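assembly run, all chains below
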Amino acid sequence: MDFSHIRAMTFDVFGTVVDWRGSIISEGENVWTAKGVNVDWPQFADSWRGGYGPSMNRVRTGELPWMNIDALHRLILDDLLEQHQIAGLAESDRDHLNKVWHRLNPWPDVTSALARLRKRYIVASLSNGNVALLVNMARHGGYCWDCVLSAELAGHYKPDPEVYQTAASLLGLRPHEVMMVAAHNGDLMASKQVGFSTAFVHRPREFGPNQTTDLVPDASVDIVAKDFNDLADRLGIP
Amino acid sequence: MDFSHIRAMTFDVFGTVVDWRGSIISEGENVWTAKGVNVDWPQFADSWRGGYGPSMNRVRTGELPWMNIDALHRLILDDLLEQHQIAGLAESDRDHLNKVWHRLNPWPDVTSALARLRKRYIVASLSNGNVALLVNMARHGGYCWDCVLSAELAGHYKPDPEVYQTAASLLGLRPHEVMMVAAHNGDLMASKQVGFSTAFVHRPREFGPNQTTDLVPDASVDIVAKDFNDLADRLGIP
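ok done. output:
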């Protein structure tokens, strides 16, 4: 296939760039259990993430006004702590725990492969995570985006088309000049509807050992890669 | 002074980070004279820049709807080409000439000093330049922002307070946690009104050998530096 028209690559972040589940389990077990958040961390991480889609949908339908991901994550966290009857956590600790989502670790291929990709393409995040979260996460993980793009800048959550349209517009590009990279078919399909090219990257352990979703790319994706280095190889970047 | 509360540094770009005048003169004389734009390039650069403030004010007052800097630069360019009776330039050339503002070169201290500052602080642009312009310019100059912030994201031009407020908000910070860095007192004073700390950097040749503006920092600035490396020294960053 001919990708000579591509100028920028926009990356889904949660699960595609970073291992949210492993990072939360690790910080939870190493830091928060001792502070009184004595829970089954794999289950807690899954529940926290499980609230993500429904909470964004409450914004999408207008039930909630625009709230960024930090704020939505906090609503879900407050509920979970109550369900687990963890009442004694000070506000500053709750806030810091909520911002574990700013400290998620990249998959091992990411840092070197993003540097390769940046030699040829504008490399940007395109995440439902808010700008501050993405900035802090990139600094934590030791990689740099040419541009931090977020649902927050569009006032809409993926997979709403406005997110992809805003991304292309802010980069000064037409949709066909942008390639969306994600481990999730829904995200890629929505970007393709707006005119983006698509690259599926396998992240079969994003949801742990029992993952059932996004194990196989949709037939319509333009590139399939096993990680970001394989993606760079397939695009012919040294 | 105590700067321990600072988490992020936001940088004015035109003149503070990049030498717009020298870059435009250089590309003009080396590329565009041969293509028929046979003008006095120092004068042309000064005139083009001279239209910048007035054009943003036409947006501020509502005379023009929101237009980003690429669009405003183009209005000024079209006027200048007409004044100089240069009619034969194809649209693709006009567009490429207009985007010389995406190819401005950083002052010599910038690339190494931004890398030093990024070790301790979130380092972001905060420019009237639009996002695409800033992204392309950083790639051209070989430096990377933790976050590209622009008037375009606020729908207002500096020195409107909304620009600084939006910047702090997107970074998840309160204004007093942000330090504005600029070679221009007006920008620094406006950021201080919103609660930012301020750092004046001397760029006495920004407007060429006959510069009369911003040669001396306002008495209220918090740090004065002769360039970005001096700024890093004064903040105690190795």
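Strands of chain B lie at 8-11, 18-19, 105-106, 122-127, 147-150, 178-182, 197-201, 223-225.

The first strand of chain B starts at residue 8 and ends at 11.

not gonna interpret more than that til we talk
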